[in-house]
Every structure is written in structure tokens, then in C-alpha cells.
Write a structure and sequence with these properties.
The structure is a homodimer. The first copy, chain A, has about 250 residues and is an alpha/beta fold. Helix content of chain A is about 40%, strand content about 15%. The complex binds adenosine-5'-triphosphate (2 copies) and magnesium ion (MG) (2 copies).
């Protein structure tokens, strides 16, 4: 099953979710590939991989097989297809290509059988790279920060998803919306969660990710929070999300 | 003077800085135009302007004069050139245009004389829209969230700025790097501030923006924090930044 973690709003926890959900699923004995398609390459560095010699730019721009770029991580069962700055070139090069929305989907076809779960960490945009992820994925996970601006952008994201379902990828489904950076002391968190549950009901994950500084510290050590501090509220929450993802699909 | 507020990392406080710096400068008797060039249109809605009939998409894609789309806000001296979803079309339409990097700069030329300060709120990317902002601006303000991933992206941003200075906009200067969402209780905040001051010295603003929930609440009321809660630590900090910006330039 291929999951894209998407939301064009910046800084809502896409990378934090991709890395920590991936690690939690690996600890549940799944074989997981994390594909970093953001040229910021945060998911790669959050797992200790910096300046990878081969990246998703080689796959998307030069047709290299994904299997050639995959590297292992310190977590057994978790592998990464790293990103790099060159991927930024895709915004200029891809639009002129035939079947430009299917480049990632074709690349994923040859590794799909080697992993139980593939996770795509997307950049903060609805550009062609993100559309490639919507076309290449089976399921979507939408992190929603418990803040006003993050709520505002949801309707536009869902319109884009509906458009992709109608034409390019009819089988695409939203697994759920994951509330992130929840701070029980603030009114705004409760308001946003209330709105999401009202409009989207069951589509909102039961598990909620709390604001937890250990989640922000872990990437500077190059490891997921489940390794950095397994007892932290952030690590516990992502383990719950992993179980809920397996139940939902 | 035209300021672009830029950082390709998502969610670091670009919009919060644009809106609240703009409002604080207006309260210091400056005539300020806030130009929203992010198709998320958060700066527009953060000032109470939703679904504007004419937006920056009409200016950038159809050549309409900016003066035609400017609307007032509840803050005397603060005006907005709102954004809209259509601006997302620029990523596909602009690349094929002649002098595509100068579209915004030309549009700003006809209003430059009517305002003391113009602020450009940029999207989370280094795409052609952001390059237009780097070419159209005189000065840059770079919000840097006090977190690991935000630190990582700085060198790439500075490379892009240097490239623009070398060819498209030699007069461009960085006014400063503004540390945002600082939480004195966390080690990571202190580490990031230490790194930025070590590498960039005086370029880092003396004023630091604390993490303050009033900053996150204000947009849901359609007003800057200086109106929503003038005594809050967020409002006080942005007033300090406004004064420091005027001193620096
Ligand atoms: N639950 C949390 N508690 C505390 N900090 C968090 C949490 N989730 C994410 N963070 C921190 O917040 C910042 C933004 O998160 P992250 O980078 O994962 O978001 P993103 O959506 O991937 O951003 P971008 O849009 O730039 O890709 C990071 O510095 C991260 O470490
Ligand atoms: N100092 C602060 N304290 C608390 N919350 C803040 C602060 N600054 C910004 N926020 C909140 O954090 C979130 C991200 O900030 P903002 O939207 O301004 O960042 P941005 O860089 O403009 O994001 P994008 O990359 O999507 O354009 C918003 O919900 C905002 O209200
Ligand atoms: Mg990310
Ligand atoms: Mg913004």
C-alpha cells in the first residue's frame, strides 16, 4: 500500500508524520520504504541521511530505478529513497514531459512488491511533484496542524484530491486526517479539532499528535522519536497512529 | 522600500511576520502596502479579506495594475493587495513568458511611490513566484523558526539570494534574519539561536519573536495581534521588530 502524506500548508507536520509513522510501522514488523519527494530533503536528514549521492531527482528527472537509490536506516525494516536539492529542477523540467503526472507512479511500480508500505513525504505545495504523489499513491494521510491557517487550506486540498480521483487516479482514498501539534491548554486547538470532526467525522484519526518538544529534537539527532525517546508523548502517539492506519486499511 | 519576507521552509512565520510587521509599521505612521503572493492567501484572510474579487493573479497573469486590487484594512495606513487560489496558475503560465522574473517588479513600479513600505508575503517555495519577489524587492526579511529543519534550509536560501544578487537584482540586500516561535524552555530554541548568531552575527535581528498563542489566535479574528491583544508578548515583539527594521534601513 502506498501512502502520500500531503498538505500544501507549510509546517503542519508532514515530514514529522512520514518519518515517525514509517518508523512505528517498521517496529510493527512491516517492511517500509520512505520516499522523500521534497527538495528540502528533511525526511532524509531526519533519518541521518545527508548529501546522498543518488536521489529522487535521478529517478524523476533521469529515469533511474528507485531500487538504485534506496538506503537502509538505523531502524530495522525502514528504508529511505532520499531527496536532494536537484529535485527543485522538476518544477521546470516536468511540465514539458509526456504523461508528466505519471512519472512517479511508473517509478514506484517496480518497487511496490518489495515493501509492505511505501510512504511519500510531500513538499508544501500543490505543484506537479505533489500531483505525481496523488497519482502514484493508493491512500492519503493529511496532517492538519491545530491552527487557523491550516484549517483554511483544507477545502482547496480536498478539491484537488477530488479532481485527481475523477481522472488521473480513481482508486485514490483518504485514509484520514491527523491532527498535529495539539496543545490542550489553548482554545484554538480545541476549536480546530472541533471543526475537523464536525466536517469530516470518521475521516479524522482518533489518535491526536500532541505538541511535544522531543519530536522537534529528534531530527537533529538523525533519528525518529521512537528511537530518540520511546517514552515521550510524541512517540506513543505515533505508535497509536501506526496501529490505526493498519486497522483503517 | 520594498521588503520580501522569504523562506522556502514551510510554517516558519512568514505570514505572521508580514501581517504583524506591516501593522506595527502602520502604527508608526508609515503608509504600508502588504502584497500577498501566496496562493494560500493567508495574509489576506489574516486581515479579514476573503474571496477578494480581484487578486494578485489578475496582476501577475493578466497585467492588471496593482492599484486596481488594493483594499484598505481596519488598521489606518495599512493596505492589502490580496491573493487568491488562481495565483497557483502562475507556476504553469509564467515559465513561458518573456522576462518572466520581472513581472512582479514591473507591477510594483507603478505603486512604489504611493507607499513608504511595501511587504511581499511569499509562499513556501523557491519557485518562479518567489524569484519574482527576490527580483522585485529592495530588502529581505528571513523568518527562521527556532527548530532544526528550519536551520537546515538556510544555506540553500542564501545561495538562491546570492544568485539573484549576481544577475537579476544586484541592489538586493538582506535586512535581517528574524528568529520566530522562540520557546525559552526548550534546548532546541537556544541551540538554533546560537547557530544563527554564530554564522550570521549582526544579520540576526536583536528582537526575537516568542511562541505566543495570541499570534495564532489573531488570524481567526481577521486582525493583526496589535489589534487583537496589544499587550501580548507577540504584539510587543513585532513592535520592536518594526522599530529595528526602520533603524537598519
Ligand atoms: N507534534 C509536534 N510537536 C512539536 N514539534 C513538532 C511536532 N510536529 C512537528 N514539529 C516540528 O515543527 C516543525 C514543522 O514540522 P515538519 O517540518 O514536520 O512540517 P512539514 O509539514 O513537513 O513542513 P514543510 O511544509 O516545510 O514540509 C519541525 O521543526 C518539526 O520538528
Ligand atoms: N510566534 C508564534 N507563536 C505562536 N504561533 C505562531 C507564531 N508565529 C506563527 N504562528 C502560527 O504558526 C503557524 C505558521 O505560521 P505562518 O502561517 O505565519 O507561517 P508561514 O511561514 O507563513 O507558513 P507557509 O509556509 O504555509 O506560508 C500559523 O498557524 C501561525 O498562526
Ligand atoms: Mg516537510
Ligand atoms: Mg504563509
Amino acid at each position: 500500500m502506498i501512502y502520500a502524506v500531503v498538505n500544501q500548508k507549510g509546517g503542519v507536520g508532514k515530514t514529522t508524520t512520514s518519518v515517525n509513522l514509517g518508523a512505528s510501522l517498521a517496529l510493527l514488523d512491516k517492511r517500509v520504504l520512505l520516499v522523500d519527494i521534497d527538495s528540502q530533503a528533511n525526511a532524509s536528514s531526519g533519518l541521518g541521511i545527508v548529501q546522498a549521492p543518488l536521489t529522487m531527482a535521478d529517478v524523476i528527472l533521469d529515469g533511474r530505478p528507485i531500487a538504485d537509490i534506496v538506503v537502509p536506516t538505523r531502524i530495522e525494516g525502514l528504508f529511505v529513497a532520499p531527496s536532494g536539492q536537484d529535485l527543485a529542477g522538476a518544477a521546470v523540467e516536468l511540465p514539458g514531459r509526456p504523461e508528466r503526472e505519471f512519472v512517479l507512479r511508473r517509478a514506484l511500480e517496480e518497487v511496490r512488491g518489495s515493501y509492505d508500505i511505501i510512504i511519500l513525504d510531500c513538499p508544501p505545495s500543490l505543484d506537479l511533484i505533489t500531483v505525481n504523489a496523488l497519482v502514484g499513491a493508493d491512500r492519503l494521510i493529511v496532517p492538519v496542524q491545530c491552527e487557523f491557517y491550516a484549517l483554511e487550506g483544507l477545502s482547496r486540498l480536498l478539491e484537488t484530491i477530488t479532481a485527481v480521483q475523477a481522472s488521473l487516479n480513481p482508486g485514490l482514498r483518504v485514509t484520514g486526517m491527523l491532527m498535529t501539534m495539539h496543545d490542550p491548554r489553548t482554545r484554538i486547538s480545541a476549536e480546530v479539532i472541533g471543526e475537523v470532526r464536525k466536517h469530516f467525522g470518521e475521516l479524522a484519526f482518533r489518535a491526536v499528535i500532541p505538541r511535544n518538544v522531543r519530536l522537534a529534537e529528534a531530527p537533529s539527532h538523525g533519528e525518529p522519536v521512537i528511537r530518540y525517546d520511546a517514552a515521550s508523548s510524541g512517540a506513543v502517539a505515533y505508535s497509536q497512529v501506526a496501529r490505526e492506519v493498519l486497522q483503517r486499511d
